[in-house]
Specification:
- Pfam families: Transposase_24.
- InterPro entries: Probable_transposase_24.
- With 121 residues, the protein is mainly α.
- It has a domain of 81 residues.
- Helix content is 58%, strand content 0%.
- The chain has six helices and no strands.
- The termini are far apart.
Length: 121
């Protein structure tokens, strides 16, 4: 009971409210929400490797699957638009019309270049 009271008090504090509102503002800026819950991309990749053995799973496939619901639908129109573009680009790559090379992969072509930042070796 004492632990619960301490937890509730911590969540009702001004400090928590301030941090919570900052994170809510950051979350609102995200354009393409994922639906991965706690498993994250690593868990999704493991799941796909089990269900699709022998198939190379690239970043664009992971990105699309991370935004699908359990029925395979993408509920957000903006995300569905990008998923269709990814499908089109993957088809062009498989037909040899578009070439992927290093950081110029299907996902980068569909979403644009990644945010520049510090590289870690």
């Amino acid at each position: 009971k004492a632990q619960w009271d301490a937890f509730v008090a911590s969540r009702l504090s001004q400090d928590f409210e301030s941090v919570h509102s900052q994170h809510a503002q950051i979350r609102e800026k995200l354009e393409y929400n994922h639906r991965l819950s706690q498993k994250g991309y690593a868990g999704l990749e493991d799941e796909l490797e089990e269900t699709m053995p022998g198939v190379e799973i690239d970043r664009s496939t992971l990105w699309k699957r991370a935004r699908q619901d359990k029925h395979g639908n993408i509920p957000y129109p903006k995300v569905a638009e990008k998923a269709k573009l990814i499908d089109d680009l993957q088809k062009q790559v498989s037909e040899g019309k578009v070439r992927v090379d290093g950081s110029k992969d299907v996902l980068t072509m569909a979403l644009g270049p990644e945010h520049p930042g510090r590289l870690r070796g």
